[in-house]
Amino acid sequence: MDKPFDNRAWFFVLPVFVLVAISAIIPLMTVVNYSFQDTFGNNVFFWAGFEWYADVLASDRFRSALLRNLLFSAIILLIEIPLGIAIALCMPRKGVWVSVCLVLMALPLLIPWNVVGTIWQVFGRSDIGLLGRSLEFVGIDFNYGQSAIQSWIIVVMMDVWHWTSLVVLLCYSGLVAIPEAYYQAARIDGASRWKVFLHIQLPKMQRVLLIAVLLRFMDSFMIYTEPFVLTGGGPGTTTTFLSIDLVKMAIGQFDLGPAAAMSIIYFLIILLLSWVFYTVMTNFGVNAADRPEADR
Amino acid sequence: MSGEGARGGAGAIPPSTSAEEALERAEEAPAKESSPLAGLGGNSRLKALVPTLYIVFLMLPIYWLINMSFKHNNEIVSTFTLFPENPTLDNYRVIFGDPSWYGGYIDSLIYVVINTLVSLSVALPAAYAFSRYRFLGDKHMFFWLLTNRMAPPAVFALPFFQLYSAFGLIDTHVAVALAHCLFNVPLAVWILEGFMSGVPREIDETAFVDGYSFPRFFVKIFIPLIASGIGVAAFFCFMFSWVELLIARTLTVTDAKPISAVMTRTNSATGLDWGVLAAAGVLTIIPGALVIYFVRNYIAKGFALGRV
Amino acid sequence: MLELVDVGKQVGGETHIADVSLTLETGSLNILLGPTLAGKTSLMRLMAGLDKPTRGDILMNGESVLGRSVRKRSVAMVYQQFINYPTLTVYENIASPMRIAGRDRGTIESKVREAAELLKLEELLDRTPLNLSGGQQQRTALARALVKEAELVLLDEPLANLDYKLREELREELPRLFARTGAILVYATTEPHEALLLGGKTATMAEGRVTQFGTTIDVYNRPHDLHTAETFADPPLNTAPVRKRGTELRLGDRTLGPAPESLPDGDYTVAIRPHHVSLQPGSIGGLSLPVRVDSTEITGSETFIHVSMGPESWVVLTHGVHRVDKGQDLSIHLDPAQFYLFDADGLLVRSPRRHDEAA
Amino acid sequence: MARITLDALAHSYSPNPTGPADYALKQIDYAWEDGGAYALLGPSGCGKTTLLNIISGLLSPSSGRILFDERDVTGLSPERRNIAQVFQFPVIYDTMTVAENLAFPLLNRGVERAEVDKRVSEMLETLDLTTQARRRARGLNADEKQKISLGRGLVRYDVNAILFDEPLTVIDPHMKWQLRTKLKELHEQFAHTMIYVTHDQTEALTFADKVVVMYEGEVVQIGTPEQLFDEPEHTFVGYFIGSPGMNILPGRIEGSTVTVAGRQIDLGRDYPAVEEPIEIGIRPEFVAVREAREAGTSGVPMSVRTVEDIGRYKIVRGEIEGGRLDAVIDESDSVPTSAAAVFDPARINVYRDSHLLRARG
User: Fold this and answer.
1) Do B304 and A263 count as a contact with CB atoms less than 8 A apart?
2) CB contact, 8 Å: C51 with chain A?
């Protein structure tokens, strides 16, 4: 049955609306305001139009940070999504091990992000870290502070360590919600393991996978604290992602105009790409006539 | 309702015996003994290997941190040991002996709790509205809420600072809690809406037909029904607020400085006291671990956001 | 007394309920019969006050209740899905409407015990509904509706999700339980057989309209139109298009019998219930038709024989066990006195005479 | 196709069953003949689904064996048993079209493409789904989805058996008629062994050649619909089959005479001597309601509570000495003001401890 139409429902939404409006719209207006203005200090501002936008979009600094971010998000998604699915598929479905697995896997998600950076900083150092020391031991000269490739490897490893569990938990919750009858029917239909995955598990996970992809994309695209602590954006600017650059510009150099313009562009890119993921994934394998109910 | 007389004479008619229900429930859960995927290939030992390896990978860095937290600084720097050779609690003593250290924990917990309470209390009615009614602009509103989750904290750091400065809220717990609401409220609404939609609307209607007023129904019937959803939403609010650093650091100077921000101090401190840093890190993991332990039975359901 | 005056409900562009006028007497049992999506539930929701009609008026004892919220109305409702408060015990579930009404402790206690006894729930009062079987859950919901002593009790396919035998027992019990409270009972069902067993009055529904309202057995025996007749038939009604020419009804090139003289010539639909078709020749004026057997179903006491007669598929219901083979050619026998005749618009123009009327 | 033998089969969901109460399925020995249409009938919780899942291999029994013909399949997985099963709620593959859904079990077994196409289009035809063949299955309504589930079971021609677990639960009443008839026709056409689980007696009786009635994990009777109707071996069967169920009244038996409700009725057949009270069972269909004056000595005075006119017939519900009594009378009969019930002696069954007592000879 359809939900009834009732505008009085707005009373329920009002607190959320007020709260979020105050903490989102006012700051956002500030940002927008700055992005169109220039200053010579002393709180004197004048209209700068789209100048900052043009500057930001044309700057190599922004472009390379954006490219780094895109590459990083792509690598993260390509590793974490399949890995997360695979681990979720292999997890036990009942018994005490479920709780043990879930608790241990969720642990990295609840560690403050800078501590995550610290943990990996300590773990990866070749003088005092288990990982760095072990790599030295097998003859690899590991120094992520000097090598661009190595710094990327450790940042990606850290993110995989930090966030794959989110994908696992999402997929797992999707998997356990599949009624037993589907597996039984598949066994009776003689379906192979692969076909069960392809025709039952994957379609039934579509919704949670959408959430996983969106969350992982957004968060990896916004990543700030962990690489900031781990590599400080270096060596050079090899791991300087958009957020790191933005904070450097806004708070470090106090270039409010360009920083604000960059914020807006940054935000819009995330919105756009999220929308693309959303549209592609909800329409995948679905006719226009029969959209899933998750569509809202 | 076998009734009396003739029917009763048929002896074996089902009144409500407990054996009957036991059987019924047993029957509703058929084939539980053979794993759903048994016979579909895949050695079960090999299957157990994958999560095991993954957990080992997760635990190693954490283990290393714990290991270090029990070592003296010179053992950390000069030798390489898999276990502390001279286990010490000195690093923890440093933290618990210095208010600027342990105060950070208290500050963090205060704003996390405020944030969780505020987020949930505004999200509950909103989620109810979204799950039960259509109204003017509902879809746009819902989408707009979610876009806030997509806003990079870095974008908001500076304007937040200015906004809260204007209200004189800088360096207060409330400031951080309110700022985090921007990210947590949309998520809480989303999660709760999912759980609420899993509750049949007929239950609401039955309550209204029975004569319940809305507040009474909401508190007495509805909230207990979605208790697990509230738990999960609280978990997510806690999680974000506890782990976030950028905004928390920007909005605080000394009085409400979160532990994670206090920690960054040692990073640049002279001679890097690795042992204390590790101990502080270990202590930041503990609240999270406790929270997970309490919601462990809801995690699987919670991540499905109440419906799949 | 509940009156619906010209009630209609539109949602978006769709009409859920159209022009329904009904008067339900106090203490009566009223059945809403129709297939899924015929509007039974929509109509009940309007009666309960859960939805507001977009037109028309609803009066309770002569007074319009449109402006009154569902909380303030004297109404109880039981759904097809077993709806209870999952977090409350069975006892608290049953007690809940009385607690809200502010009844005193002693009254609540005795009423709950009484209802529990009537519905065989005494042993289960301390459990929560999700630990009960489906039948017990529904009995809990019924007990809650019972103790409320509402003027209007709405049961929306309350037995549809229960076992066959359980259904039979509860069905017998239900009207009696609520009759004692003097409530207006409204009972929705998709099954004609259930409507007949319950008796009372029946409103047949199709596409949001009430097609006929009257004593159940009268609606069954004298449906106003073909649609109602088909809705109210289990096993399905046998129909065939016929042509009236002069004094005869003709099916293809075969004479089916004399036609009522008052009718104009033209196309009609003839209908006959399966139990009025026989394998034995017998009654006076009997008519034989050759058919071919498609399949047979034997219930032990009766046999359903599915036959085809040219393009028409018919069902013959006979007492006892008859074994006939698929593909076998048979003669079926019918008494033209048992014919229903519907005109080209589907309106009844002739119904069979009932024996009890003759008596 | 195969004959299916259950050899001392029993099942318990608890790992260490201690008493009979722990068994969801008590010991059963039975052989399902090749090509038969069987129904497993009983209230919920009687163990019928358990038995079905053991036959299909989704569940392995606690003890006993299952043989397909002479082959022991107890340890075989469902796919190796080569059976088809249709579940209570529709199971469809969301991402596939209707036709692909039907082709799926065939393709999995390596049936040739041309043969698959032929069978699928036949099945689409049979189920009236041809127009929907190219649609994605997820957009269909419950009726159609369940038809696809049925189709996936029926499309396989070489199965040992087709098992149905309350397949018509989600189907609208008028559609139920059609699908039931369809199943029956398909059975006649292909002569598969079919086993059909249901709690609905009409479905069971109309579908099956032989009905297995179960109660509390036990098989209480296996018989043809006529046998279940005429000679229920247990009062539960008498009650469970038939609507309304059989009247059960306390009485005594001596030789060929039963005493019930203070009347003696000569059954015309001799029973073994039983000292203790027995029960007699008589179906409402064989109770006539007469005017008391005309009923003679065999008439039992009956106070009529209600008469339910359900069109085809009337159900008279009343009380006699010894209990409640239901009678079914013809639509054209009327109920007399002072009524007496007359039992058809040939249709009276005698029960001792709820079990049927047969006459000698």
Assistant:
1) no
2) yes
C323 touches chain D (CB under 8 A): no
Residue C189 to residue C182: CA distance in whole angstroms: 21
Strand partners, B134: A5
The per-residue pLDDT for range B17-58, each reduced to its tens digit, is 333 333 333 333 333 334 444 434 456 677 888 899 999 999
**CA-CA distance, B146 to C56, in Å (whole number)?**
42
- Per the CB < 8 A criterion, the answer to whether A3 and B205 are in contact is no
Contact A41, A244 (CB under 8 A): no
The pLDDT of residue B127: 93
- Exposure string for C246-276, b = 16+ CB within 10 A, e = fewer: eeebebeeeebbebeeeeeeeebbbbbbbbb
Q: Which residues on A lie below 8 Å from B282 (Cβ)? A: none
- Residues of C in Cβ contact (< 8 Å) with A2: 11
Give the pLDDT of residue B30. 36
Radius of gyration of chain B (CA): 27
CA distance D178 to D182: 6
What phi and psi, each to the nearest 5 degrees, are found at residue A241? -90, 175
Q: Enter the ipTM.
A: 0.82
Q: Does domain D244-357 have CATH number 2.40.50.140?
A: yes
* Phi and psi, residue D23, nearest 5°: -90, 125
CA distance D266 to D248: 18
3-state secondary structure at position D28: strand
- What is the 8-class DSSP label of residue D92? -
Proportion of chain C in helix, strand, coil states, percent, rounded to 5: 30, 35, 35
Scanning chain D, the segments in alpha helix (DSSP H) are: 48-56, 78-81, 98-108, 113-126, 142-154, 173-190, 201-207, 225-230, 235-240, 292-295
pLDDT of residue B93: 87
Q: In CATH, which superfamily holds the domain spanning B98-305?
A: MetI-like (1.10.3720.10)
C37 to chain A, any CB pair closer than 8 A? The answer is: no
Q: State the helix-helix crossing angle for B153-166 and A26-35, rounded to 10 degrees.
A: 110
Residue D291: CB atoms within 10 Å: 13
Q: Answer for the pair B258, B283: CB distance below 8 angstroms, yes or no.
A: no
Q: Which residues of B touch A131 (CB under 8 A)?
A: 60-61
- B199 to chain D, closest Cα gap in Å: 21
Give all domains of chain A, ordered by start, each with its CATH number: 60-288 (1.10.3720.10)
Which residue among B50, B163, B302 places its CB closest to the CB of A27?
B163
Rg (CA), chain C: 24
Q: Which of C283, C274, C335 is nearest to C303 (CA)?
A: C274
Interchain contact, B27 vs D58, CB within 8 Å: no
What is the distance between the alpha carbons of residues B133 and B135, in angstroms, rounded to a whole number? 6
Architecture of D4-236 per CATH?
A: 3-Layer(aba) Sandwich (3.40)
pLDDT for position C115: 92
d(CA C333, CA D266): 37
**Domain extents for chain D?**
4-236, 244-357
User: Is C51–A2 a contact, with Cβ atoms under 8 angstroms apart?
Assistant: no
Neighbours of chain B (3+ CB pairs under 8 A): A, C, D
Say whether B10 and D249 touch across the interface (CB within 8 A).
Answer: no
Q: Are C250 and C221 in contact (CB under 8 A)?
A: no
Structure tokens at B143: 């989408």
C11 close contact with A: CB closer than 8 A? yes
Q: What's the pLDDT at B16?
A: 35
CA distance A55 to A276: 26
Shortest CB distance from A199 goes to which of D58, D96, D139?
D96
**Section C196-201 average pLDDT:** 91
Instruction: Show the tokens assigned to D2.
Output: 């195969």
Distance, CA of B302 to CA of B282 (rounded, Å)? 26
Compute the average pLDDT of residues B217-235. 89
